[in-house]
Amino acid sequence: MKKKKLGIIIVVVLALAIIIKAELNYNPSARILASVIHFSESTLNNPDYLAYNIDLKDLFRNYTNADIDYSGNAYIKKLKGFPYSISGGIKGQRSASQKKFSCKSNLDVLVLDVGEMDVYAQDETVYLVAPLLGGISYGFDTGSDLFPTAPNLNNDINHEWFHQNKRNIYEFVKKIQIEKTDVIFVDEDGTESNEFRITIPKGEGDFIWQLLGMDAPDHDIKCSLFLDRFNHTRKITFDLSYKTPGAYISIVGKNFNKIEIFAPLPDNERVVATIKRNGQTNYTNSFTNNITYITDTGSNYSMDFNFLMNYVDDGIKFEATDVSVTQDSTVLTEGYINGTISTKENMGDVFENAHADLSAVTIIDWDRIKNDTASFVDDVISQARENVDVLNFFD
């Protein structure tokens, strides 16, 4: 009799296991829930996670969306057509509310102080004020908002938040639209994952919008989730076409260790940026970064650098190492920057604090730079050489 009862129990357990396995394999909602559980229990606690050991609520509210001071040092060891190394101190401010930015640098070529080169920005325009270049000043209207803001999180995104909202998440997954497609994503390690297209209907997900510190959107939100055979998320893509047609943000990798941002520009141009966590340093947080601008003629302008950051008592300590700017395969400049960032209260006007005088700035149409960037860069470098011609005996 005991053997018979044991056999029945084993059969029931096996049947339940088969049912659960089938549910996870064929029920999209169950697979999505399984992926959420894995993310909250495993990925959030993994050192390879993009935001591991970063307080996103503090970072967004007190730095990205706030008024900040920064100071540090910069070193340019290679500049195309300019045979001298350049070093200097940098300091400035950024205000998200004012949509203003300042950067003042006092530059040295070898042991000679050759003056300031200042950079300012407001709304969509960048200003270069450069006594180093014989007093030449330029302004560039980029046509893009230079001061995007991040979500003002009302809670930290952590295990506790997922635990507190498990009922909300369960009900939410039942209400969203989920469609499995034939699209396959192959991760860097060769793992394949299937796409599940998700539509969040207008009016759903109040607890998510509350977390993000924003009003619920007045339109549907679309994204794609790519799940491997263990229902672990290998990629999630947020469609931003409701703001900019064709734009998206993707978070990629076994432990969500990389973010990709794609932004189309007018005239069939585009910008692609990637940030990937790299834990092979002594810094608390280390990232490998690339920003690439593709012109309508097919030319690529890229900036590659490693970014290191640590939280310190008075803010954030940072280093940008192995900075390299290239035009297609030609290196335009290489360098290094380090410094600290701190929150600034009662900042006042950014431009007034920097004693900025933009009255004589010549605004250049971006198309002029875009269509003949090489000539513009050569002209600027030639002017810089003329202003340090005291060093020409080294040639």
From TrEMBL:
> What name appears for this protein in its UniProt entry?
Uncharacterized protein
Task: Name the species this protein comes from.
Answer: Pseudobutyrivibrio xylanivorans DSM 14809
